[in-house]
Amino acid sequence: MIFLVTGGAGFIGSHLCEALLERGHSIIALDNFDDYYDPAIKEKNVRNCLNYSDFHLVRGDILNPQQLEEVFSGQKPDMVIHLAARAGVRPSIMHPLLYQKVNIEGTVNVLETMKKHGVNKLILASSSSVYGNNEKIPYSETDNVDRAISPYAATKKACEVLAYTYYHLYNIETFCLRFFTVYGPRQRPEMAIHQFTRKIFSGLPVQLYGDGSTSRDYTYIEDIIHGILGCIDNLKGYEILNLGESKTITLINLVRLIEKELNKKAIIEWLPLQPGDVIRTYADIEKARQLIRYCPKTAIEDGIGRFVRWFTSSQK
C-alpha cells in the first residue's frame, strides 16, 4: 500500500513511517518543517527513513492546496494518515487564529484533495484535550465534548466533525484517534516529560503548575504506533477511538520517576495552574480493544526509563 503521512517528520509521524516501511509499504511523508521547534530535530527524525527507496519526503504544507494536488497526482496514496497540526494547548490561547487556520483549514484541504482523487481511507489524529475538564472518568468516546477549554481542543473537535461530514457525504471512511499524551524517544522538546528530563539533567529549575496533584494518562510511543497499525488493518466506516494507557499518574509522581531514573533531584518552582490546562486525563480504551485489539503494554515506569536512557544517550 501507499500511505500519505502528513506531519511525517514529527515525533509520532517519524515512528509511524519507520513501522510502515518495515511492513513493506510505500510512504509519502509530507512535512513543512516549521519552526514551532528546531527543524533540525525533524531532519534527524527521518534520517533512518531516508535509507528506504520506498520513502518519499515532500517538504510541503497542508495549507497549500496546490502542493497537496501535486502529491496526490504524482503518486496516488491508498490511505491518508493525517497527523500534521499546530500542537500545544497553551500556545493556542495566544494564537487562536493560527491554530484555526492550520488545524481546521489544513484538514479541509486534505479532505477536499482526497475527495477529488477518490481516496477514501483516512486516519485522523485527534486529542484527549477534546474532553476538557470532563467530570466522568475514565473518558469514553460517547462522552459529551462540547466544552473545549482551549482553542487547540476546539480545533481537534472541529476536525472530528468535519471528518464525519466527509464520511457522510463522500464515504471517506475515517478513524479519529484521541491520543492521550504520547511520550518516548523523539518526543517534542516542549512537552512535559522531555522538558522536565532536560531541566533536571541540566540542574535547571522545573516549573510545575498547580499543587502537583493534576494527573495525566501517558501513552508510550510504541503502544500508539501499534494502535495506528491496528486501525489500518480494521478501518471501516467512521469511528472515534481513545488511544491511552488507561492509567494515570500525578504530576509530582511523574517528576519523582524522572528523578529516580536520572539519579538527580529536581529543583521545583511552583506556579499557578495555567488557563487551558485540564485537571486530569484518563482513557477508557475498551472500544479500541474491541475494534482494533488495542492493548498497551508499556507501564509509565518502564516508559520513563526508556525515555531517560534515550535522552541521556543523545546528550553524549
Q: Can you walk me through this structure?
A:
Strand 1, helix 1 and strand 2 form a beta-alpha-beta unit. Helix 3 runs parallel beside helix 5, helix 7 (192-202) crosses helix 11 (300-314) and helix 9 crosses helix 11 (300-314). This protein has a domain at 2-180 and 220-244 and 282-296: NAD(P)-binding Rossmann-like Domain (Rossmann fold), CATH 3.40.50. It has 316 residues and is of the alpha/beta class. The strands form four sheets. Strands 3-2-1-4-5-6-11 form a seven-stranded parallel sheet, sandwiched between helices. A two-stranded parallel sheet has the order 7-10. Helix content is 43%, strand content 18%. The chain is globular, with a radius of gyration of 19 Å.
Provide the CATH top-level class of one domain.
Alpha Beta
C-alpha Rg (nearest Å): 19 Å
What percent of the residues sit in helical stretches (DSSP H or I)?
A: 40-55%
What would the principal axes of the Cα set say about the shape? globular
CATH fold assignment of one domain: Rossmann fold
Which structural category fits the helices and strands? Answer: alpha/beta
Parts with pLDDT < 50 across at least 5 consecutive residues: none
Report the total helices.
11
- The whole-number mean of residue pLDDT values reads 97
